[in-house]
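User: I'm curious whether this sequence folds into something compact or stays loose and floppy. Could you predict its structure so I can see for myself?
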Amino acid sequence: MFELLIVIALVLAAYAGYAHWQLGRMRARAAEISAELEKVQATQSQVIHTTKLASLGQMIAGVAHEMNTPIGFVKSNVEVVRDLVGEYRTLVEKCLQGFDMMLSADLTRPQTVEPLRRALTKVRDTLAGDSRLSDASELLTDSADGLTQIANLVRNLKGFARVDRDGMDLFDLNESVESALMIAAHQLRDRIEVKRDLGVIPKIRGVASQVNQVLLNLITNASQAMGDEGTLLVASRRSGDMVEVEITDTGAGIPDDVLPRIFDPFFTTKPVGEGTGLGLSIVHKIVQTHGGSIKVRTAPKKGSTFTVSFPLDHALLRQPA
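Assistant: Here's the prediction. I'll summarize afterward.
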């Protein structure tokens, strides 16, 4: 009996040792998996950060392209105005010289008066008929319009700054639409017809820069989906307790086998090197963070419609007008 107990004890000890060894292996494997998971998450975060930087670079390039035109004609106008003012100054200096000669003339002599009268008349006609000042004024007015365009671009670009900001502010979704369209203008001009159907909607609370990023991404995708030509319709409206923005393109549509995966991270139909597959994934995450939703309707060869919905702030709706 004693010997049997010894055998059982030895078996149990061996089993305990084996179990301890297995537990050690499992812990080590769990640690390896945890380390691998941390590496994957770090890599994913780095890819997302790189994607945001790439998007920012493309956005800045687009804004720089949009600024080149007004900057170019403002610079040209200022140079022309400088030349016009220089020419007019020369003309005025000649007139002043003539006036000095007239003031020094002997007006008591009758034969001097008539030539002076003719000279004064000529000077007056020359100054009255000169168009350089009015031309310069028109050029400066055009330049002011160009500077206004630049200021608008800068203001809209500031709306995309600090995309990771945490503060929730009150903002107008229609203004965000206009801001995104202006930033994307270089992708749309001469190729895509843009139509607006923006309704009267309440303001919403959120991170405006992130919502701007959502709209810009959807507009950019719609532009790319339409190729060489098409029509982009951007509409906004209130729907119950939500405010909606619809972005509709006339592109090729999204294939049925692709549609279920468009919001998956790293999924892309673009060639290798042209897309990370994070655009719509980030869009989806931002919209969900704001308590909203995003839906898509699509048809082959007819285009797609993305509907983004954001909840209204009921506390604001209860405030007196």
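Summary: Residues 272-277, 316-321 have pLDDT under 50 and may be disordered. The CA atoms of residues 248 and 305 lie 4 Å apart.
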